[in-house]
Amino acid sequence: MVVCEKCLKESTTELISTDHFRGEEIKQYCEDCFFEGLQTAFNDPDLVCNCGVKMVLEVNDKEEIVDIVRENEVIFYACEEIVKARLDMDNNIIEELEQNHDLVGFYITQPEADYE
Ligand SMILES: [Zn+2]
Ligand SMILES: [Zn+2]
């Protein structure tokens, strides 16, 4: 039996392990709490674009995020300006924004090599 770090609910299924994208001690979360934590990259104060606007999940959809996690892929954050423009499907602006604003990707747990 494993217990979620945040809601302390016991689970019989596998929880999501993360080092909060910054090499911290590994914590385990249920899908709901993991997704909630992702909204702020687990309270990462540096998750801000060079323009000063906060960065948000590029794909803000729990199902898709869980898929990404299961595949051990990277979770992307983009400047909120980019995400907004994409929602508006404003292609001209999107391209320009993508050149001037930040987009970062994190592994759920950082590859060990990064810390050697
Ligand atoms: Zn939980
Ligand atoms: Zn920006």
Could you describe the 3D structure shown?
The chain is α+β, with helices and mostly antiparallel strands and 116 residues long. The chain has helices at 31-38, 62-70, 80-87, 91-100; strands at residues 2-3, 10-11, 16-18, 27-29, 55-57, 75-79, 103-106. The chain has one domain. Helix 3 (80-87) packs antiparallel against helix 4. The model has no long low-confidence stretch (mean pLDDT 92). It binds zinc ion (2 copies). Residues 49, 51, 53, 79, 81, 101-102 line the site of one zinc ion.
Brief overview, please?
The chain has 116 residues and is an alpha+beta fold. The chain has helices at 31-38, 62-70, 80-87, 91-100; strands at 2-3, 10-11, 16-18, 27-29, 55-57, 75-79, 103-106. Helices cover 30% and strands 19% of the residues.
What is the element layout, followed by pairings?
Layout: E1 2-3, E2 10-11, E3 16-18, E4 27-29, H1 31-38, E5 55-57, H2 62-70, E6 75-79, H3 80-87, H4 91-100, E7 103-106
Antiparallel strand pairs: 1-2, 3-4, 5-6, 6-7
Helix pairs in contact: 3-4
Bound molecules: zinc ion
Q: How many domains, as an integer?
A: 1
How far is the first residue's CA from the last residue's CA?
A: 33 Å
Q: What percent of the residues sit in helical stretches (DSSP H or I)?
A: 25-40%
Overall shape: it is elongated
Q: Could you spell the SSE succession in H and E letters?
A: EEEEHEHEHHE
Report mean pLDDT, rounded to a whole number.
92
Output the radius of gyration. Answer: 15 Å
Query: Structural class of the secondary elements?
Result: alpha+beta
